[in-house]
Every structure is written in structure tokens, then in C-alpha cells.
Amino acid sequence: MKVLIVGCGDLGLRVARRLLDEPGNEVWAMRRHPPESLPIPGLHWIAADLARPETLSGLPAGVTHLVYLAAPDTRTEAGYRAVYRQGIENVLRALPPPGPQRVIFISSTAVYGDHGDAWVNEDTPLDPPGFNGRILQEAETWLAGHADLSGGRCIATTLRLSGIYGPGRTSLLQRLRAGLAGAPEGLGHWANRIHIEDAAKAVCHVLRLARPAPVYLVTDDTPLPMRTLYEDLARLVDGPVPPVAPPPAGMGNKRLSNARLRATGFECDWGDSRLGHAALLRADQGDG
User: Fold this and answer.
1) For 143-155, what is each residue's pLDDT tens digit?
2) Which residues contact 190 (CB under 8 A, 6 or more apart)?
3) Could you state, in order of their start, the residue ranges of all structural domains in the chain?
4) Most exposed: 41, 137, 218, 250, by fewest CB within 10 Å?
5) Distance between CA atoms of 183 and 279, rounded to whole angstroms?
6) What is the CATH number of domain 2-169+194-220+255-269?
């Protein structure tokens, strides 16, 4: 594979490492400001701006696989539209012909609305409550149309990721330790999580599938009521019982299923986010 990773941040670098561990793969990574030193041997960097098509003229020829992992700098409607809806179009138009055979677009479960205690899967109707989800839905729709127009030459797959946690993403644990993170009472609002290494593993797994589905939910095996998760994590860090607080605004209440992804042979290394967070704490304390 000759892979271009667009928006190569923390998750993209983990994807790149996994791909470069396989003999024969060539990986290019695009950011507006690439790091001065290459953190991964063999990774080729490209400096370009998704919102400025004139900067995309130097994209490499012969890219077979595109992984679109871009994220906006600001949480505004204009920022989301420039990066997700217009950005994916700009990149695909700028790549030298014939263009990639496969495209992986990283979306979010923000495209779903509120579903209470019901299970949500890839066939659940979309009803995004916020502009972020609406723009991601527009980008997903545009990409599916682009793949259809290719006459089967390009296969596009959307991965809708739940909330990512992992090394360097431990602010929730810090807030729980300080008693600053609250959760709704009872077993209502559901928390859905994915460890960042499992997210990277899922991207590489779907890249290798011969006949991928158009959409996969990427989330762990154990959605939990927000109150349950927060209380268990608070005990883990010796914090107080989390106070009662409303759920985060604009997220919607949903219980996500990863059954379609697991049916392809994928397995999470961290199927329960409580175990994943416990491992993060052990690593921070030098216990492996």
C-alpha cells in the first residue's frame, strides 16, 4: 500500500507506525506544520493546508489508500465545513490520477441523535443534534457519491468513532480525582469510548478488508451508563463520588454497538474503558 494520512496527529501517527511495521508499505503524512524531526523512521511528511487548494499541488502520485483524519482548529461551523466537507473534496481533486483505490474517512458518532436506552448501529437513522454532526453527515454523503461516480474503482468507508481516550488524554481522570466531574443520576445517559490504540488498530484492520462495508462504528465492547463509568473511575483514582450534573450538551444519549466491526474479525485490546483507564494509570505510575 502507498498510504496518504491527511491530518496526521496523535491517532494518525499511531496508524502510521502500524502500517510501517508491515513490509512493503509506504506512508505519507500531511499536516499544515509537520514536526521538525521525523518521529517515525520511514514516514514522509507533506506540508499543506486543506482549506487552501493551491498548497495541495505537491501531493504524491500513485497513492493507493487515503486515510482522512483531519480535525478543525476551532469548534465553529466554518471550521468544520472547511476541514470536513470541503477538505476531503479538495484532497481527492488534488491527488494525481487515477486517485486512491480506497478511502477511509474518520467521522464521529455525533451524526446520531438521542436514542435513550436503545442500541445504535450503522443502520440507525442519522439525526445529528449539532452543526458538527450535520457537517460530518454532509461529508459522508459527498464521499459516498464520489465513490459511486468512480464506477467501483474507489471504495469509500466511513468510520464513526466514539469518544477517544488514551495516553495524554487523561483530563477526565484528573477532574474526577479533584471532584470536578459530575454525571447524571441513575442509569440514563450512556458513555461510549474507544482507546486510541484500538482506534488505530481498527483503521488498519478496515484498510485490509477485501470487501468492507460503507460504514463501521468504532467503539469498545462495553457502553456504560455515564454515572457507572464516572463512579468506577473516581474510585480508581481515589476521588470523591462524582456530583450530580447534567450530561454534556449536544451529544445525545445513545448506546453504541460495534457488532458489525467485530463480525469482520476485529477485537478490541481494551474492550472495557475502565480496564483501559486502569492501564493508563499503571503506565503513569511506572508499573507498565
Assistant:
1) 999 888 777 889 9
2) 117, 223, 224, 225, 226, 253, 254, 255, 256
3) 2-169+194-220+255-269
4) 41
5) 23
6) 3.40.50.720
